[in-house]
Design a protein that fits this description.
Elements (H helix, E strand, L loop, with lengths): L24 E3 L6 E2 L1 H4 L7 E3 L9 E4 L2 E4 L4 E3 L4 E5 L4 E4 L2 E14 L7 E4 L5 E9 L2 E4 L5 E4 L2 E3 L7 E5 L6 E4 L2 E3 L4 E5 L7 E4 L2 E3 L11 E4 L4 E4 L2 E3 L10 E5 L6 E5 L2 E3 L5 E5 L3 E5 L2 E3 L12 E7 L5 E5 L2 E3 L3 E7 L2 E3 L18 E3 L2 E2 L2 E2 L2 E3 L5 E2 L12 H5 L2 E2 L10 E2 L22 E2 L5 E2 L6 E4 L2 E4 L1
Amino acid sequence: MMNKRLFLLTLVTALLCQFAEAADTFTTKGDGTTYSIQTLAYISETSVIAYELEEGQWPEYELRNSITIAKGDKFVMDDCIKVHFNKDVKLTIEGEADFQCSEGAIFDALDENPRALVRIMSQTTTEMKNCEFYTIGMEVMGEGAVNLYNCYFEDHDGSVPAALYFIGNGTLCKIESCDFHNCSKAAIGSAANASRPLTISHCVFDKNSTENNNIPQINVTAANPMIIEGCQMTGNPDNTMVGGIGISNFYGFDADITIKDCYIDDNRYGIGLVGSAAKIRIENNILMNNRYDTNPITGGSGISLYDPYQQTEAIITKNHIEGGLWGVTVIGCKNVNMGRIDVAETDEHYNPGGNTFKNNGNDGVLYDLYNNSANTIYAQGNTWNVSEQTEEKIESVIFHKNDDPSLGEVIYWPAATITEIKQTETSKLPVDNYYDLQGRKLTTPRKGINIINGKKVVH
């Protein structure tokens, strides 16, 4: 029978980073003036240089020294321009800011390791739309909300612990329909010693944390609320230290976390929680082949919950978990509900289950659910990776009290009524319309979740 004991899956949450400012910084007067890149170029002290270009090209500007828009002033991003940053240059906004571009704006660097940065320290809401960042990172330090829509981050150089990095407490920030590709550290991150509410929706994450350190693609501290929904996340199997979504709570922050409708594949692990969290709901996600840890003892779970403080209450429902070294692993936690159908639907503990497991295991043994805690886990109404959904066969893919008397029991019966597991398939019906989760029309389906004739389909 199974005799492994599972240890802590370590997640790294970045700490505050301090960077030296560029030698020369131009700071505005704070007298209510509105600035843009183009207007700053007319002020000689800013060292903003305008390039001479041929007709029809977007205007291009070079920031040779750092610029700070002081509190009391406002910055408005010009539409249809390119801004090139020199090494160590930072554009800091302490006053109001508006980065909404109808056509777009591009921020890039003139050095392979620029350590350049856009830093938002505003106390009011900053809206950002259609902005593209290449190599350059963005840091949010103010209490005001920073909302991003249809923005793009690629090849961030690691000047801060994430391409989009949040420091300190503040207002809820929204990140919607944004793409993050090949960033050297996390795509989105937040400091461990602060709790910033976030909603991350309909974003694409592709092979981030390229340095292959112990940093997941999303690496955030728990908050109320923390919502991640409708996202696609693909890892690089060669980067065996990079997880998918990592949420930590080392300071006991009040937290209400929801992760739903996401497609997460090819990472070290899919979803991992470390520390205490008040509530977490993981619903309707597809977790595929999140197995690329060289040691099954330290990773490879579709879902991993680690809470030695016995405070986490987790509801896990309607997820498809396939191809992991482990399906779900639980270490500690106050209450984990993976399905409770022996009570009325009106009961607060009712959970239809609906989770499906397929081909999760290591060393020749299948592990759909590993309860490495002393607590009882309800896991009724699920479809397990067995040829028939019988008590005897389901027992073979669950590790709990029956395998080690020091552990808690898993109550898995009754299971779902499906008698066999079928391969997840793309619809075979003739289709005319393909869209990604951001609503962009595709010529053919791509790997992950597609919208085909109005329905979500895994390809």
